[in-house]
């Protein structure tokens, strides 16, 4: 792992891939204690120094290295009292340390590794994450690239499609619940959904699926429009739509556009309608007459109203409505 690990043997800590000595083994690299002199392809290359040609992959001596970059000269393994040879290279050790663990991590393939061997670590169950390869070196497992990282799978499917508000269902994991409701402008119909381990939402236990969303329609009868307003164009106006309110027959005023809001109520200023004034016929201004019908347009009676005319003082005649 560090240069000090190799100093007692007079070797260097060397990155296998580049053959470069390092003070500390880089993350996710395989390093060995070895001399810096050249590679070996057979035992002959190391015999002069009293060393063996060690196969990095197998972790044992070899008489014929299939690829020079996998072999190096190292001290021969010690001989036991029974005469059998045992490997003393760091990579010949079984890996008992560094086995990944934690929630959702499956490292079952890494239990019986020795130096140079690799295993794949995956996420299991309701956990998700990219698989990672680990290799055995010096009795400990190390990640070849990135360490394994498993997190609970987030639900991304199973919610109803249509005009539904599912904004509070984002980022939900196995066992989490959220409320699905209709968007503004539609009749509310909330339903409870749960995130399951397969990464999909479904109605929670005992809950019915979300009902279809019905668009809200504004009721013209709820609003006080004022005198003489014609709202026939606004019947069945749905949320988000507009309509034109005008003045009814017998009334005068400027039409106005009003909107049906997402809450099902009309918004906007309606028209101001006034009764149409009646024209004053000329005979009402004859000499000797007086009238309650007004002396000008501003004072004239309006549509639906009545007035009368009669004789002034000094004149004789009947009063007429």
Describe the protein.
- The structure is a single chain.
- The protein is mostly beta strands and 321 residues long.
- The protein has 2 helices and 23 strands.
- Strands 6-7-9-10 form a 4-stranded antiparallel beta sheet, with no helix packed on it.
- The model is unreliable at 79-91 (pLDDT under 50).
Biggest β-sheet description: 4 strands, antiparallel
List the strand order in the largest sheet: 6-7-9-10
The overall strand count is 23
* Mean residue pLDDT: 83
| Rg on CA atoms, Å | 47 Å
Structural class of the secondary elements? mainly beta
Strand content: 25-35%
Separate helix tally: 2
How does the overall form come out from the CA principal axes? Answer: rod-shaped
What letter string, H or E per element, gives the SSE order? HEEHEEEEEEEEEEEEEEEEEEEEE
- In whole angstroms, the N-to-C terminal distance is 117 Å
Helical fraction: under 10%
Low-pLDDT runs: 79-91
Which secondary structure elements does this structure contain, and how are they paired or packed?
Elements: H1 4-7, E1 12-15, E2 31-34, H2 44-47, E3 52-55, E4 60-61, E5 71-74, E6 105-106, E7 118-123, E8 127-128, E9 132-137, E10 140-143, E11 151-152, E12 164-165, E13 177-182, E14 191-195, E15 201-203, E16 229-230, E17 242-247, E18 251-252, E19 256-260, E20 266-267, E21 274-275, E22 289-291, E23 309-311
Antiparallel strand pairs: 1-2, 3-4, 3-5, 6-7, 7-9, 8-11, 9-10, 12-13, 13-14, 14-15, 16-17, 17-19, 18-21, 19-20, 22-23
């Amino acid at each position: 792992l560090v240069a000090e690990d190799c100093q007692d043997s007079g070797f260097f800590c060397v990155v296998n891939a580049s053959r470069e000595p390092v003070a500390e083994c880089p993350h996710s690299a395989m390093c060995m204690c070895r001399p810096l002199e050249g590679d070996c392809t057979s035992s002959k290359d190391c015999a002069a120094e009293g060393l063996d040609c060690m196969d990095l992959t197998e972790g044992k001596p070899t008489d014929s290295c299939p690829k020079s970059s996998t072999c190096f000269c190292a001290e021969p393994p010690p001989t036991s009292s029974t005469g059998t040879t045992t490997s003393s290279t760091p990579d010949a050790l079984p890996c008992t340390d560094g086995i990944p663990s934690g929630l959702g991590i499956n490292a079952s393939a890494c239990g019986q590794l020795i130096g140079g061997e690799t295993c794949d670590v995956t996420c299991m169950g309701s956990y998700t994450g990219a698989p990672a390869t680990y290799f055995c070196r010096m009795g400990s497992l190390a990640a070849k690239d990135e360490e394994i990282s498993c997190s609970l799978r987030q639900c991304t499917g199973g919610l109803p499609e249509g005009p539904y508000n599912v904004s509070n269902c984002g980022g939900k994991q196995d066992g989490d619940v959220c409320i699905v409701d209709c968007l503004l402008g539609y009749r509310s119909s909330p339903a409870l959904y749960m995130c399951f381990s397969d990464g999909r939402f479904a109605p929670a236990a005992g809950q019915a699926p979300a009902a279809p969303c019905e668009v809200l329609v504004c009721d013209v009868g709820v609003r006080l429009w004022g005198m003489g307003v014609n709202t026939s164009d606004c019947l069945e106006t749905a949320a988000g739509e507009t309509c034109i309110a005008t003045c009814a027959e017998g009334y005068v005023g400027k039409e106005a556009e009003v909107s049906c809001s997402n809450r099902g109520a009309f918004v906007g200023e309606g028209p101001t309608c006034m009764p149409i004034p009646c024209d004053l016929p000329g005979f009402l201004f004859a000499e000797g007459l007086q009238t309650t019908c007004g002396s000008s347009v501003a004072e004239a009676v309006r549509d639906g109203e009545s007035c009368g005319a009669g004789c002034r003082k000094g004149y004789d005649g009947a009063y007429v409505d």
